[in-house]
Write a structure and sequence with these properties.
The protein has about 200 residues and is mainly β. It has five helices and eleven strands, in the order αβββββαββββββααα. The longest helix has 11 residues, at about 5-15. It is globular, with a radius of gyration of 31 Å.
Amino acid sequence: MSAEEIDEETELADVPVQHVSFLAAGEQYAVSLLEVREIVQYTPVTRVPGVAPFLHGVTNLRGKVVPVIDLAVRLGLPPSKLGARSCVVMLDVTLDGEPAVVGLLVDSMSRILELERDDIEPPPTFGTVAGAGLLRGMAKEDSRFVLLLEVSRLISAEVLELPLLAEEPKKAKKPRKPKKAAAEAEPSHAPPSPAEEPPAS
């Protein structure tokens, strides 16, 4: 479900929308509960060569292959440090018009937040690691802000198909030396010219 559809449902129902919050690289983020299928404990994934650095790997979710994105790397931060509280937030998304499931690797779960439309402010245009295009907005909780992720932009078919960014540059081929002309390549077999005799006195 897109952010626009969630906003429309919120406006029509005029009730708070529940959000799932979690930690990544020391910051608190959240997505709508309507976008979350389930939350699972982190288990080792299968690495896939030749993909973007933020694609942590793929995991098996009841027989279905699910890509797992490292949220911290996706936001331009160092890779997540795996620990006992690491988990994967399984999200229902749409890829190329088809429903799909994609996992977000996060450091730990936080809590369920109930946010009304008036609680959400526009995303900042500066001062955040994530660009404004990856955020739906931000909500204040106690003395800190919770950044609301725009899932449709964070995860898309185009994003998942990005090639590996850090490819080694191809070595330039050394130019071939031009072949010598036939006259230079083969020695001459003509007899040497006789040395000139000094003139008679």
